[in-house]
Amino acid sequence: MAWIALEGMRFHAFHGVYEAEQILGGAYIVDVYVSTGIAAAAANDSLANTHVNYETVFQICLVEMAKPRKLLETIVTSIIRQLKHQFPSMKAVRVRVKKVNPPIFGRMQVSEKHPAIGGQAAAAWVEDEQDFVSRCPRCQRELLCYQDDTCWCNTLTTLHPATRETLTRQFGTTCLCNNCLKLYAG
Ligand SMILES: [Zn+2]
Ligand SMILES: [Zn+2]
């Protein structure tokens, strides 16, 4: 699998549970890795022109980093959600949000003889990776499904609501490959 990456995006942001983090803020580094496939994009031909570009990836991260959150997990999840929304042809995505010099430190007396030792952490980070390659439940052809409302199949306006219900009942999803969906689209 080939990856496109935007690594080491730096932000000053106000995430965290401590008051100091929320008022003074801190340094964050964000890495985004996207895997796209020309074959997969071609399989959903309406998506043939959608490719990942760095400016948009950066803008998405900037917008999400500007919203103060308590947990790094929340930031990672919402960046992935926005990427899915923006780029309908990702085969997989990996996002890492790193807090530089997190407010973790301590001192401890090891023994009477030795002075106290101190410790701190250079960074704390959270990463999530999601894989979107699956198979059409009708013909077993490879396709991309985001498994939520950001998926391309939800944007097909030609699919009648009643047909959607039938497909969901029969296959458990409306996300069939383009060939199969054409049979159902009105
Ligand atoms: Zn199919
Ligand atoms: Zn889908």
What does this structure look like?
The protein is α+β, with helices and mostly antiparallel strands and 186 residues long. The protein has two domains: 128 residues, GTP cyclohydrolase I, C-terminal domain/NADPH-dependent 7-cyano-7-deazaguanine reductase, N-terminal domain (GTP Cyclohydrolase I, domain 2, 2-Layer Sandwich), CATH 3.30.1130; 40 residues, no CATH class. It contains six helices and eight strands; from the N terminus they run βαβαααββββββαα. A four-stranded antiparallel beta sheet has the order 1-2-3-6. β4 and β5 form a beta hairpin. α3 runs antiparallel to α4. It starts with a strand and ends with a helix. The mean pLDDT is 88. The structure holds zinc ion (ZN) (2 copies).
Question: Can you summarize this structure?
Answer:
With 186 residues, the protein is an alpha+beta fold. It has helices at residues 19-23, 38-43, 54-65, 72-86, 161-171, 178-184, and strands at 4-13, 26-36, 90-100, 105-108, 117-120, 123-131, 133-135, 142-144. The longest helix has 15 residues, at 72-86.
**What is the number of beta strands?**
8
Q: How much beta, percentage-wise?
A: 25-35%
- Uncertain parts: none
- Corresponding CATH architecture of the largest domain: 2-Layer Sandwich
Structural class: alpha+beta
Secondary-structure element order, N to C? EHEHHHEEEEEEHH
CATH C-level class of the largest domain: Alpha Beta
